[in-house]
Write a structure and sequence with these properties.
- The structure is a single chain.
- The chain is mostly beta strands and 125 residues long.
- The chain is 0% helix and 47% strand.
- The strands form two sheets. Strands 2, 4, 5, 6, 9, 10 and 11 form a seven-stranded mixed beta sheet that branches. Strands 1-3-8-7 form a four-stranded antiparallel beta sheet, with no helix packed on it.
- A hairpin with a 6-residue loop joins strand 5 and strand 6.
- The protein is globular, with a radius of gyration of 14 Å.
- The termini are far apart.
């Protein structure tokens, strides 16, 4: 099992930037595919970004491509989400998630078995 703790959320003006961090427990962080999800008020949770075990591959929701960057530092057991050019529609609770998978393909949402508590990101217009 792994515990995840997000940080870095806050209030920012449209066009601004925030960097979210997700600290993971344990000594097997590098074995997990990591992802970021978000949930806006009144909406379902949605996928934002994912990163492979080594950090060599990333994938993003279309609406955040070119603005958000997911990265990881396995030595620090931490995954990051750099968010630039933020828009009001990015306002949501952002969740970090981990998936211990045994394949090298696309990780489905159901494979993310470990979740953080979430951190609020609010973008004002």
């Amino acid at each position: 099992q792994v515990q995840l703790v997000e940080s870095g959320g806050g209030l920012v003006q449209a066009g601004g930037s925030l960097r979210l961090s997700c600290a993971a427990s344990g000594r097997t962080f590098s074995s997990y595919v990591m992802g970021w999800f978000r949930q806006a008020p009144g909406k379902e949770r949605e996928f934002v970004a994912t990163i492979s075990r080594s950090g060599g591959s990333t994938y993003y929701k279309d609406s955040v491509k070119g603005r958000f960057t997911i990265s990881r530092d396995n030595a620090k057991n931490t995954v990051y989400l750099q968010m630039n050019s933020l828009k009001p529609e990015d306002t949501a609770v952002y969740y970090c998630a981990a998936a211990q998978v045994f394949h090298n393909g696309v990780v489905t949402s159901t494979e993310y078995d470990y979740w953080g508590q979430g951190t609020q990101v609010t973008v004002s217009s």
